[in-house]
Specification:
Sodium/glucose cotransporter, mainly alpha, 77% helix, 495 residues
């Protein structure tokens, strides 16, 4: 007999004192790891010079080992659990394809094609790497892209949705409450504190989603139950969406190749081998995580088809699990969100203090903290602009990164020195213009199927080609003028 699941059941009707005790215990352990990381950084900072102390604050002194690398990358990269479970609830295995398989390809490209290249630059941040590859103007522009790309808008929405289920209230109020808590402990810790907390959060989040899937199979049955209670489209690759819409996610996934959090952890890794195999092992963990979240959300759709897709997975899990395990699952959901939220805020603050300010202010801790606060405020504001939609947030912000930075960066890796500083800036800005215009200009018919990402990527490619064509002509003209001037000089001086 199938248990009865109520899509309107309130949080207080399911949670018990034991659940609260488990949830609070996990949060205490996480905070203790943050404190430990902070104190360890302070001890190291006292023994080292200022430059080494700053490097430890930003990159843990480039001493990130393989287990720590995997734990922090896995935890950091997967904060939008309400986004992926919403997609799986609505479209089934389409979520596993668009939020899983496409991304695995991008991860492995990063591991085997880029890691050994970027490690040679010994950069601290992605914009600094761009500056060493292309020039100072490219570095400044990429720092702006970097800041907006790393804004944790989707994760501000996620923590707001989580607290809405737990406490009630409006999404704005819950985003403000959750973000305030994260900002406070992110201001206090450094990258080392983020890494140590990620270890705890990685274990908890992976265990929690695995627990939900295992209990679903035990209580409701295996794949046969899902095929009997879900629409056929939930088992198709496109989930009823067009191929154009599906493939957009493939390009969004390639934004991983210009994602600041990936670069930060690779820069922090002890060796190139640690970075490469850390990404490979993380991909294996992500595969398991995606199977669990996709499967769990599909079970939620099967038994609660009228539930709110944004919160259905959490409500389903609360009614599925027994007391005690509910608290652990809640801690897992919170860990999934917080581990990404704090890491992204930290990188945003670093971008301000290290990449966006004038050279004489570079590396000031007070500016980094100010950057964290500014990033939090902007993230909440954009969360309201996107009306609480994590899916649209990912598509929009991810589109700009993939369309405007990806192609110039790949060309720079494959053909070092072939793209000039101004060429990078010109092409990237043309990509911004193309992407933005396509979003605001009305278009109908077959053009409605063309995503803004495609237009932006094409605009960036055109910018690279135009500059490559125009610049040699100008250079040739300048070369003739220089040759004429040199000949005139020789004529006046004599042989």
């Amino acid at each position: 007999m199938i248990p009865v699941f109520n899509p309107t059941l309130s949080f207080t009707d399911t949670i018990t004192g034991l659940d609260w005790a488990v949830f609070i215990a996990v949060q205490v352990i996480t905070v203790a790891s943050v404190v430990y990381g902070h104190l360890r950084h302070r001890r190291l900072h006292k023994r080292e010079d200022q430059a080494a102390g700053f490097l430890d604050l930003m990159l843990m002194g480039r001493q990130l080992t393989l287990p720590l690398f995997v734990a922090t990358l896995v935890a950091t990269w997967y904060g939008g659990i309400f986004g992926v479970t919403e997609i799986a609830f609505n479209y089934g295995i389409y979520n596993f394809i668009t939020q899983g398989v496409f991304w695995y390809v991008a991860y492995l490209i990063f591991a085997f094609a880029l890691v050994h290249r970027l490690r040679h630059y010994e950069a601290v941040t992605l914009p600094e790497l761009v500056g060493r590859m292309f020039g100072p103007r490219s570095a400044r522009l990429s720092a702006i892209f970097n800041f907006f790309n790393i804004l944790p808008v989707a994760y501000a929405i996620s923590i707001g949705l989580f607290l809405q289920v737990v406490l009630g209230g409006s999404l704005l109020a819950m985003m403000l409450l959750g973000m305030s808590f994260v900002v406070l402990y992110t201001l206090w810790g450094g990258f080392r504190a983020v890494v140590y907390s990620d270890v705890i959060q990685c274990v908890v989040m992976c265990s929690a989603v695995a627990l939900v899937l295992a209990m679903s199979i035990h209580v409701l049955g295996g794949p046969a139950f899902l095929t009997a209670h879900l629409p056929p489209a939930h088992f198709s690759v496109t989930g009823g969406n067009s191929w154009g819409t599906t493939c957009v996610w493939g390009f969004v996934a390639l934004a991983t190749l210009v994602d600041p959090s990936f670069y930060q952890r690779c820069f922090a890794a002890r060796t190139t081998r640690v970075a490469r195999w850390g990404i490979v092992l993380s991909t294996v963990v992500w595969f398991g995580f995606d199977v669990c979240t996709t499967g769990g959300a599909m079970y939620a759709r099967a038994v609660m088809p009228t539930a709110d897709p944004k919160q259905a997975y959490l409500l389903y899990a609360l009614q599925l699990l027994p007391p005690g395990l509910r608290g652990f699952m809640l801690a897992g959901i919170a860990a999934t969100i917080l581990s990404t939220l704090d890491a992204f805020l930290f990188i945003a603050g670093t971008t301000v203090a290290y990449d966006l300010v004038p050279q004489r202010w570079k590396g000031r801790i007070d500016l980094q903290r100010a950057g964290i606060v500014v990033a939090a405020i902007i993230s909440i504001a954009l969360g309201l602009v996107f009306n609480g939609s994590i899916r649209e947030t990912w598509k929009t912000l991810g589109s700009y990164a993939a369309a405007c930075l990806l192609l110039p960066m790949l060309v720079g890796y494959l053909f070092p020195g072939k793209i000039r500083d101004n060429q990078f800036v010109f092409a990237s800005l043309l990509g911004v213009v193309g992407t933005t215009l396509w979003r605001v200009i009305p278009h109908a018919g077959v053009w409605e199927q063309v995503d803004a990402l495609y237009i932006g990527a094409a605009s960036t490619a055109v910018g690279l080609l135009l500059y490559a064509i125009i610049r040699p002509v100008r250079s040739a003209g300048n070369g003739c003028a220089a040759a004429t001037a040199h000949a005139d000089a020789r004529f006046h001086r004599g042989p």
